[in-house]
Amino acid sequence: MGFCEYTLRVNEEKGQNLKQIPDFLVVGAGINGLLVSRNLLALGASVMLIDQGEVARESSWAGGGIVSPLYPWRYSLAVTALASWAQEYYPQLVRQLLAETGVDAEFERCGLLMLDAPDQSDAVSWSVSEGKTMEVWGAGRIYEAEQNLAAGFGKGLWMPHLGHVRNPRLCKALIASLKQSPSFVLQTHMRVAGFEQTDNRIVAAYTKAAGSKESQSVQAGAFVLTAGAWTQQLLGSLKFESGVAPVKGQMLQYRLAEPLIDSLVLHKGKYLIPRRDGHLLVGSTLEYADFDKSLTKEGRKILQDAAVGMLPGLARYKPVRQWSGLRPGRAGGLPVIGLVEPHENLFVNAGQFRNGLVLAPASARLLSELIMNQRPFIDPQPYRPGTDPRGSLKAIEAQAS
Ligand SMILES: Cc1cc2nc3c(=O)[nH]c(=O)nc-3n(C[C@H](O)[C@H](O)[C@H](O)COP(=O)(O)OP(=O)(O)OC[C@H]3O[C@@H](n4cnc5c(N)ncnc54)[C@H](O)[C@@H]3O)c2cc1C
User: Fold this and answer.
1) Distance in Å, CA 109 to ligand 1 centroid
2) Is 299 close to ligand 1, i.e. is its CB under 6 Å away?
3) Domains in the chain, please, with CATH?
4) 341: which residues sit within 8 A by CB, 6+ positions away?
């Protein structure tokens, strides 16, 4: 069923004016909501995007913007499938957005250097079977590339095609582009609190504006949940279990007088990201604290110690900023993308956990293809809502540390 049919059915039953009801209501304006909205608009649909806060001020703002899973071989091939397509597409997306909006999301293909990974032979096997360029470096090559690293690193894995993006700017460019479309409406500071349904169809979302006790009903032809770490709150109201839950991450930022590294550097699950403007980001903690986003001294110390351990020159500096975000974690480590059955017009795209920025373009493509009943570019089965997420939320931590 295409979006026109969703809309027509709503209109037939409600007798409303087609123009007042969007084809899609997208809930959550992080990277996933923004990219899904972009794809739906490109297909000719009308879209209302709602966020309970500002556009992209949650995880999609807080993230580091590495356009790769950390230790990519430790993830399932279903994550690799999404990541591989998105990594190819990222430069084109950033170029297109720059042309459309003048905002440069600064995609930098600076390479990722992973130091002393204990499972190096698994990494090499993965790179061969997945056709990824990966070089095994000894100490000589490591220090030739990055002179300022601490002494003592003997083994490195180098993936030259990987890089990072300025994620806050990417989201800024996306919303600027969306706003150019006459078929797009944005509503911020409006929380979706539940849904009205008739049989298996969602007919409206109950929304509450910030500071108001009154709830308003917003109709649409179909509904797409891209509410990040909060997705289960919405699905829970429909008695659907998605396995998505928040995992807090804290980050630090330094302002350097001169660059200390050129590439992304990863060691024991902590990483350094050199931005073009002289900032260096350090990430990140993994904390299970429900929806608590508070910054802690302990988090700061863990990140500072890890950063100075990799790059002793940082000891001269104090971090200029600390922040946190809530990753949409999901047991089993795979996102949930597709139709939320038995509802015939409710879709979800969430649970990308630590990889939401890299996976976003591919997740949005897959969801749009499923919505439009087009042949999906990859097998959608592993991400299907209702497939029991295997393993515990904490078990996925092992993949990334
Ligand atoms: C510290 C940290 C570092 C990270 N580093 C990386 C990295 O280097 N690379 C990478 O690929 N990924 C990284 N990630 C993960 C990535 O940031 C997330 O997976 C991704 O941003 C999730 O995007 P999202 O759109 O699903 O969620 P979000 O960006 O959290 O957006 C969800 C939106 O939904 C809104 N919302 C929620 N409930 C409702 C409701 N009921 N009504 C209306 N609106 C609602 C929220 O306000 C929010 O704006 C990192 C994350 C963190 C926290």
Assistant:
1) 23
2) no
3) 3-62+170-243+332-392 (3.50.50.60), 109-162+245-330 (3.30.9.10)
4) 385, 386
